[in-house]
Amino acid sequence: MSFDAITWALEHSPVTCPYERLILTCLARRANADGTDAYPSRRTLAAAGLADKSTVTRKLNALEKRGIIREGDQRAALRIPEHLRPKVYDLLIPFSYYSPDQLQRVNRERSDRGLKPLTPEARPDIAPAPERKHRSDKGKKRAPKKPVPSPAPEGGASSTPLDSSQFEGGASSTRVLEAPQGGASSTPKLSFNSVLSLPTDPAVPAEAGTDEREAAAPEGKNPAAGGGVPGPREEDGAERAELLVMLVGLPGTVSERAALPLVPLAVDALAAGWTLSGLRAYLAGRCDPDRVRYAPAVYEKHLRDLPPARPGRTDGSGGRPGMCERHPAFVAGDCSPCRRAEMDRQQRGTSEPGPVDGAGLLARVRAGMPVGGAQ
Length: 375
Known about the structure:
- The chain is mainly α.
- The chain is built from 13 helices and 5 strands.
- A hairpin with a 2-residue loop joins strand 3 (162-167) and strand 4 (170-177).
- Helix 1 (3-12) packs antiparallel against helix 2 (18-29), helix 3 (42-49) packs across helix 4 and helix 7 crosses helix 9.
- The longest helix is centred in the middle third of the chain and has 15 residues, at 234-248.
């Protein structure tokens, strides 16, 4: 490496292309003080110049054509294997570039390598770099790009246009959807604010005021209420609330969120003739929480497959005949919660006489306890 060659390549080389200057600097970094025996590979030059190898090849040919570099003594790279050996170049640094002290040192190094000293004839001055070409349209404004027309849809159908409709009394800003001609679409003529328009009596003109509409409306109907459409009744809300409470209280884990989808089905059951107590007893008797993983699904199935209501099928307490009074989901005399409660009281030693009904007596007998009280 020689600082004399690097300084010439960076500051005095007659080039205007940045790639050429960078390639010359990389060559000078590997060359001697007189610019000879530089042989970096083209891959190395491409990596240093942030370019590809084809660009490096093109720039090396241009430098060689202008007389800035030339092929040197290829024996300088004999130590590299032949299939990897790069080409050796010499930088033709002009004789006039060197100062007397530099020239004396350079010639001494050349004599040590068996070369002749530099002379003005061997290293003449290099012609200045040609003026760099500029773009012909530099400084000119580019013409605006023409809009590319969108392709027509298949089948010849055009996109739905948007027009403004005119009414008496001035222009309206309502945007209207128009169906294309030729039957390509069945889209009716519809304004965007038609959904918000309230239906009025056809006998009353649209320009009529509020007082005139109220006078033309029949008794008991509010013209602003959508043509007399009845609103929700308070009785319906109370009935749904009772049904929701009934569904949440059924055996098993029934949350309010899980019971809400069942309310419409229960409303249909009441409309079909079922009573609230009879419906609760029917559903409770068909779900065993100990055997069911998700109770709301069982109730939904039975509500959808509900049989016709039969009057007189429920007793005074609201449960079905033959079912446990305290646990309507279980048969009287075979109620597992009652047996479990009796066994717990027996183990604690605080058992008390059971209820005086047949179901309680049968539960105590099945639990292994005496009929009259504690053991």
